[in-house]
Each structure stands twice: as structure tokens, then as C-alpha cells.
TrEMBL record, chain B:
The keyword Cell cycle does not apply. This is ABC transporter permease. SUPFAM superfamilies: MetI-like. The keyword Transmembrane applies. One of its GO terms (cellular component) is plasma membrane.
Amino acid sequence: MLGVPASMNVIDIEALSLTFETGDGPVQALSNIDLTIAKGDFVSFIGPSGCGKTTLLRVIADLERPTGGAISVNGTTPELARLDRAYGYVFQAPALYPWRTIARNVALPLEIMGLTRAQQQERIERNLALVNLTGFEKKYPWQLSGGMQQRASIARALAVEPDLLLMDEPFGALDEIVRDHLNEQLLQLWAKTRKTVVFVTHSIPEAVYLSTRIVVMSPRPGRIHDIVESDLPRGPRPLDIRETPEFLKLAQRVRDGLRAGHSYDD
Amino acid sequence: MIKPSFFRHSVVPVLTVIAVIIALWYVAALFMNHSMVVAEAQLKGLAFTPSATWYRSWALDKPLLPAPHQVIAELWKSTAGLSIASKRSLVYHGWVTLSATLLGFLLGTLLGILLAIGIVHQKVMDKSLMPWIIASQTVPILAVAPMLIVVLNAVGISGLLPKALISTYLSFFPVVVGMVKGLRSPEAIHLDLMRTYNADELQVFTKLRWPASVPFLFASLKVGIAISLIGAIVGELPTGAVAGLGARLLSGSYYGQTIQIWAALFAAAFLAGMLVLVVGWSERLVMRLMGARPERRAA
């Protein structure tokens, strides 16, 4: 049984490690991770592929089990937090069920939670409105663009009404124009709902634009190289902020961190 | 609305192929029945002109290979030309076979789905049952069928059920194989999603695995319904040729009634085609109700 550090943070990670047993021997995916995430933070994990950023998010979500160290989510184990439906998870792909309409997709977790039809209807309407998808309730996923599908999947995660939102490269597959737009909307949503967000990305501008803190990770073994505190204003930020010297300075520091942590011998 | 392209791309090629087959068939009938016509002429002491020989080889009572028009005439006579209650009506025999087919298909589908559910959810069942299920299909059905009929008869089960069980024996297999694949078809990300919702096994099944397996189910059903019919016909062979299309085939071969055999064959093929068509229609209906993207047909 792994320990649970006592703290008021939403997420508390101490000396966490995870080793996968593979056919080619053990692979250390995460090594000696120390990280705390406070309530209301927007934290991004950034790093090259293989740095363990997605794995770390999956550990928080109890989709992977760590092999060492301690982690608490909402003051309890990740498993209990998951059983308590303490977080909403947004995957790299929208992962909508093709045989359900958009409204029924948002209803999926609500059905599982055993909400009444009326409660479901209320949450569907409210959360689809939050992601600007009102009027698309009866459409099937294939009738929506990729960006709209991902927004629907965000509405589905929000419908659970968690205080914690875990997002694994949610806009990675979208083109830059759509991505900019969704980044802006996501910040507005975060400011409105005061949720804690953990966001995985491999885009420096995306990480700097969205986050209050940026966790720079490096591979082999996956570890935290640097944690950059953002001095950009909290809350909704205009997209133009990306042209300001403060933004560029932060981006430079993240880029330097990625360079230093990444060995280029492969 | 029927588009002109439908005519050009579907009707014309199909009709052309049918015309070629019929032409080849007449030629084949000519050659295969020629010796019989010559023998007949010698027996009766007649001298046929070449054209009379031709004509005669397409009009024999018990030809080696009946000509198409003979088969069609027999089909017409034994369907439209007879009361449905008649023992010589193909409609009557077709119905006997069809009822065994449908019962066997239904049982086979249910059995296949239940086995697949067990195999997907229980590792023990996967390891222990799958080899037997595959082995069951390597046994020649022609060898199993008579034994099954005899054994069931000995314990007092006769009539429709034994034949249906042979259909079941054949049709459960594609359903098991297809449904095991179908129930395992959800992507990891869809299963992870269910895990983040703390969904139980039953919810994962009803809300994810089952709907995801529907296209696989229909692919299996199309195979299953066709071999159910074969199972029912094979099941009719050892029952002493009482009723059914299989019985017509058997009695036809007892008495050298080749035209009757071919008519029964065509009736069976027609029945199989209709059954597969009905499964195909229900598939399209169900997929539409499940919001599937309409298929775009290649022009």
C-alpha cells in the first residue's frame, strides 16, 4: 500500500516512480517525481514524447499504478478519488461513442452515476452551453468537426461536475486555428468554473498561454526537469498576450528547460 | 428513385453474367445428354437429324443435366402449379426447411452470443472453451448429423428440433467468433473512459461492448443464416426423405429425377439468398437507428 501524504493540496506527489515490466526488461517511465498542485491551479506537463507526462496524468487518474513513492488526490488515494468520480478526464481523441448523439454522449457518465432523467437533461444543457454546442444535441459525432467533437468530450468531462479536470493533449490532433480558439475558450471556462486543471501538451505556446505553472519534463527516465511559475495574469488572457515580452521570456525558459533535459543523441 | 447509373452499373453487368451462364448451361446440357439421346434413338430404332438430337437433349425426362427451361418449368409447376398443402409442392417443402432453419438459427445465435459473453469476461472460459468450439467445426457435419438424429430419436425427440439443432451446431460458430471479436473491439481509450467513471462490468457491457459489437454480430448473422439452411437440409437427408428441400433432393436422386433435384437446389439457393437479404436489411435498419454514417457507395 502506497502512502498518502497529508496536505490540503488537490494533488500531492512525493518521490513517485513507475517502472513498466516489458518483454525487453523493466522500463522506468517515471523517476523520483515531486509535485504539488494547489486548488484552482492550471498546471501543464510539457516534454518530448517518452518523458512520462501522459503516464503521470494517468497515475493521477488511477489508470496506471505507481511502483514507488506516494501520491494523494483530493486528500485520498487516486483509486478512492476515481471511485468517488473526483475528476473529469479528457483524452487525446474525443472518444465519443459513435452510436450515441452528442447529448447522449454527455449523458453517458450521468447514466452511470444513476442521475434521474431530469438531472441529466439539466446538466447536458448547461455543459453543452459552456462549450458552445447548444443546438447540436441530436447530432451524431461524425456530423461534427474534430474541434466540436473535442468540445463535446470536454462537456462530457465537465458534466460529472468534478473539481479537477485532467486533460491529455486534448487539442493535439487539431489544426492551429481551431487550437487557438479552443485554448481561449478553455481559459474562459477555467476562470468561470474555478476548477483545478492538469493539462498535458507538447506545445510550448499552448503551455505558457494556458498555465499558472508549467512542469517541464525530460525522458529516460521520465522526470521533472524544471517547474516554471507563470507571472502572467490569472484568468482569461487575450491571445495577443503571446506577443508580449513576459510571455516570450517564459516560453524561452521552458524551451531552455526542454533542451537541457533532452539528450539529442537519438 | 432509380438513377441511370444504377442501371448501368448494376443491372447490365448482372444480366450479362446470367446470360453467359445460361448460354454455357445449354451448351453443357447438349454435350452431357448427347449420348443418352443417341442411346434412346438406337433403342427405338429411330434416326435423329442433328437438329432433332439437339432439341431432344434439352427435353429428356431424366437428363444428366437438365436444360434451364426444364428446371424453370419444374419450379413453376411445383410452386405455383400445386396446392401448398401438396406433398410435391416446393412451397411446402421449402417451409419445412425454413422453419428448421429459423429455429436453428435463433438457437445458434443465442448460444453463440452467450458463449462469446462468457469467453470475453472469463479467462477460464476463453482458455477452456475456444479450442473445443474450433474443434467442433472440424468434424464433418455429414458424419455428425445422422448420429445426432438417431440419438435424439432414441430419446424421443424427433421432427423439427433435431434438424434445427444441426443448424444450431453450424450457425453458433460464426456468431461466437464474430462476437468475441466484436465485444473486444472497443478501443483502450473507450474502456479507460468507463474506468474513469467507475462503471461496473455490466455497465461496460451494456453501454460499450454490446453496441460496439453490433456490426460484428450482423457480419456473423449473414454467414450463420446461410449455413443454418445448409444444416437444415443436411439434417433432412437421414430422416428418410419425409419432408423438406433435403428430402426432395434425396428422393430425386433415388428415382433419378434430375429435374426435381435441380429445382430443389434452386429453391434452396433462392431461400438462402432471401434470408441473407433479410439479414442485410435488418442490419441497415439497425445501423441507421444507431446513428451510423450512411454508406457512400462508390460510383
